[in-house]
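Board notes (copied after class):
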Amino acid sequence: MGLNPVNEKNHSVEENKLGENETMPKFLQQLEKWVHRFNNALHYVSAIILFLLMFITVGDVFGRFALNNPITGTYELTGLALALIIFFSLGRTQMVKEHIDIDFFMKKVSLKTQQIIHLCIALFLFIFMILVTWQLYEFAMRTMLGKELSGDLGISLHIFIFLTTIGAIAFTLTFLTDFFRLLFKVVNNR
């Protein structure tokens, strides 16, 4: 039996990185290793949150229809948990190149031009994500100072915003490693 297409794609991405790592500078190898571990850890945490969210949702539906007594705050917890799931998974998704990629233009240009375009995109997204992360942090600080709480359960919202900021940092670091890897390729004509 063969691997499913997702696993084949992930496997080929990892093989390509392993081949590149043989000639990459040591600092880039170490940075990529650290960023991969960080993103993988956050991705596992998001999977656990999703698993727990499933139980809360099932319990709420059961309580609502069977006992006529839903779990208070389920809607609120679902929204907060989804924010964490999304932000904790962004970096891992970027690492394995599973984000949507529209490449009808890129197929028409040379490999060198593609590498330069990808390099510019990685730099732009790195700078953009620095700004997003900074604003998330500022928002978390304002929320903490304002002592804002969720509506039903009275949970401090700044905790969740700080956690999403950690996910944004991981995503930002992924673009940094992409930029360095692409820069290395362009400079060395690979």
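Comment from the instructor: The chain has one domain: 5-99+107-187. Residues 5-99+107-187 form one domain.
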